[in-house]
Amino acid sequence: NAGVTQTPKFRVLKTGQSMTLLCAQDMNHEYMYWYRQDPGMGLRLIHYSVGEGTTAKGEVPDGYNVSRLKKQNFLLGLESAAPSQTSVYFCASRPWRETGELFFGEGSRLTVL
Amino acid sequence: GENVEQHPSTLSVQEGDSAVIKCTYSDSASNYFPWYKQELGKRPQLIIDIRSNVGEKKDQRIAVTLNKTAKHFSLHITETQPEDSAVYFCAASVGGGGADGLTFGKGTHLIIQP
Fold first, then answer.
1. Mind listing the pLDDT tens digit for each residue in A77-103?
2. Could you say which of A22, B73, B78, B104 would form a disulfide bridge with B66 (CB–CB 3.0 to 4.6 Å)?
3. Are B65 and B73 a contacting pair, CB within 8 Å?
4. From the CB of residue B75, how many other CB atoms can be counted at a distance below 10 Å?
């Protein structure tokens, strides 16, 4: 049981390049989330999904797109990376039953030059 | 939407002393208040949580208190140890399953001085 797995762990991009972060969970959780963490800013919600085929915007969605084609996977895409998107990205998941613990992945450190 | 304020941003205490971190929230509908600990380079991990129908919860050296009227909740760590050094985040979630995720405070860097 691996929990929540994120790939890649590290990535360096040039401004304007595109990339996709993959989040995979093996706990059969319905809800999945993408957060970004910046120094002194805490964790801010980018997008989330309450089930396969559904996504919704969080607090800071601009410049990102997401897809949830399979229940266990939640993809975060950057179509045209900007230096402001340099951050550590965390994926998280939890079951739908009631508000409770979020299970986080190990994080993906993205640098945009 | 929900707004969570957390203070202080940095807290330095002597080993063995107590540490208190405070948070306020804005949405009176919020009913779930977790605390996460994040060690350097690691993922956030839940250490304790409290729901709105409870005023206080303890787990060994850690306790959380909630004042719904004032929209305040606090984390108390007693007999601090070196391994308590980390960044701590409070969070709040609106009820109904909280599908829209947690709103986090900006974090408190707790430093335990030997």
1. 999 999 999 999 999 999 877 678 899
2. B73
3. yes
4. 25
Return d(Cα A47, Cα A45) in angstroms, integer.
6
CA nearest to B10 within chain A? A40
Residues A16 and A32: their CA atoms lie apart, in Å, by 27
Query: How do strand B108-113 and strand B10-14 relate by DSSP bridges?
Result: parallel
- Structure-block tokens of residue B75: 């984390």
> What are the start-end ranges of the E strands in A8-64?
10-13, 19-25, 31-38, 42-51, 54-57
- Tokens (6 digits) for B8: 């202080």
Q: What is the pLDDT of residues B62-111, one digit of tens each?
A: 999 999 999 999 999 999 999 999 999 999 987 545 566 889 999 999 99
Query: CB neighbours of B34 closer than 8 A, spacing ≥ 6?
Result: A101, A102, B46, B48, B49, B50, B90, B91, B93, B102
Chain B contact for A56, CB < 8 A? yes
Write the CB contacts of B60 (distance below 8 Å, at least 6 apart in sequence).
Answer: none
Taking the CA of residue B82 and the nearest CA in chain A, the distance in Å comes to 22
Nearest to A48 among B42, B101, B106 (CB): B101
Question: How many C-beta atoms lie closer than 10 Å to residue B8's C-beta?
Answer: 12
